[in-house]
Amino acid sequence: MRQVRVTISGFGNVGRQIAAMLLERRGRYRQLYDADVRLVALCNSRAGIRNDDGIAATDFAAMVPGATGASFLADAKPDVLIETGPSDFATGGPGLSYLETLLAEGCDAVVVSKGALVHSGARLRELAASTGARIRISGATAAALPTIDVLETGLLGCRVLSLEGVLNATTNYLLNAMMARRVEFADALGEAQAGGFAEREPSRDIEGWDTACKLLILANFGLGLDLRMDDVTVSGIGHVTLHDVEDWRNKGVVPRLVGRLDLQGGKPMASVAVRTYPLDDPFAHIAGKTKAMRVQTDCMGEILTMGGGPEPMATASAALKDLELLLAGSKNAASRD
Ligand SMILES: NC(=O)c1ccc[n+]([C@@H]2O[C@H](COP(=O)([O-])OP(=O)(O)OC[C@H]3O[C@@H](n4cnc5c(N)ncnc54)[C@H](OP(=O)(O)O)[C@@H]3O)[C@@H](O)[C@H]2O)c1
């Protein structure tokens, strides 16, 4: 049986959930993939754990101060890095140095945080190609909702004409709350924060940047484009008023914050904005914190995915789906040597 050494950078909500579920699924990995999957190192910003024999759930409390950083994880000689640090698309965030270091060593990566993929996606892809490493990104592209898988494999051979996605759960929840109960934006946001459905610092969600990041990653990783954030026109939902709500209700339409990519002209057009949908459109029925993606293709017509699950389990599950795809696949041949 082959040994597969896994490390995790970032040990917050998602990182902890991934670690716990990965340990629970070790029997599955042995049975299905003939793989002894060992969690050999993990870290947060201040501390970490390393054990070549495999970290157990009972070790999680014994984080060693100072045991962190890209070289700490690289020393564990991992086969797979699962990156779950903070998303910072302006700098790439801490994930960038973890990915640069480990992809350069030929280590595969399952990426959950969006920052490095937006900031340096093309460079990371080139680096991975040069060492034969593989990058999987379901957790960064609306997680439980099948998005990147659909683009990478479900539509093989087709030309994508357009893509639109409700890719941010918080804004969908807020717009639904305003429409259903006629509450002001600030009140809906306050309720969502009190209920744990919105971040305490929600600007990246409500100003549309989280949706823009996911759209850009899907465009670049899923459709082979080379978009930068400057190429995406971004507006959010902070300007939505009860007057808008009444107007939409009177017209029988439903608002969504939508990331949209139009590929039918000469130049790809990417935007994030509130769009409205008539009641007979599936996008009018995206409940609560659910997400959805619709792709128009030349040969397969219109493909729609919709769904989502409770967090952080849904995102952790998406990352572990990526791990299984790595276990099932074969390593890329490096173009360098
Ligand atoms: N939560 C979700 O449902 C969800 C869904 C989809 C995607 N995501 C993405 O997943 C990522 C993690 O989300 P989360 O909810 O788990 O966030 P979180 O609870 O804030 O956890 C972030 C973790 O990253 C660690 N970190 C910060 N700087 C680091 C560094 N230099 N080296 C190593 N670790 C570092 C933090 O350590 P400290 O505790 O020491 O600061 C913390 O353990 C984010 O990028 C988020 O956008 C989250």
TrEMBL record:
Its protein name is Homoserine dehydrogenase
- The membrane-spanning stretches of this chain are none
Tell me the first and last residues of the signal peptide: none
Q: According to its UniProt record, in which pathway does this protein act?
A: Amino-acid biosynthesis; L-threonine biosynthesis; L-threonine from L-aspartate: step 3/5; Amino-acid biosynthesis; L-methionine biosynthesis via de novo pathway; L-homoserine from L-aspartate: step 3/3
| Domain Homoserine dehydrogenase catalytic residue range list | 146-323
Gene behind this protein? hom
Q: Outline the extent of the Aspartate/homoserine dehydrogenase NAD-binding domain.
A: 10-136
Write down the EC number.
Answer: 1.1.1.3
Lineage, top-rank taxon, reads Bacteria
Family in the record: Belongs to the homoserine dehydrogenase family.
The beginning of the lineage is: Bacteria, Pseudomonadati, Pseudomonadota, Alphaproteobacteria, Sphingomonadales
EC class name: oxidoreductase
Q: Which organism is it from?
A: Novosphingobium indicum
SUPFAM superfamilies xref list: Glyceraldehyde-3-phosphate dehydrogenase-like, C-terminal domain, NAD(P)-binding Rossmann-fold domains
Identify the keywords attached in UniProt to this record, alphabetized. Amino-acid biosynthesis, Methionine biosynthesis, Oxidoreductase, Threonine biosynthesis
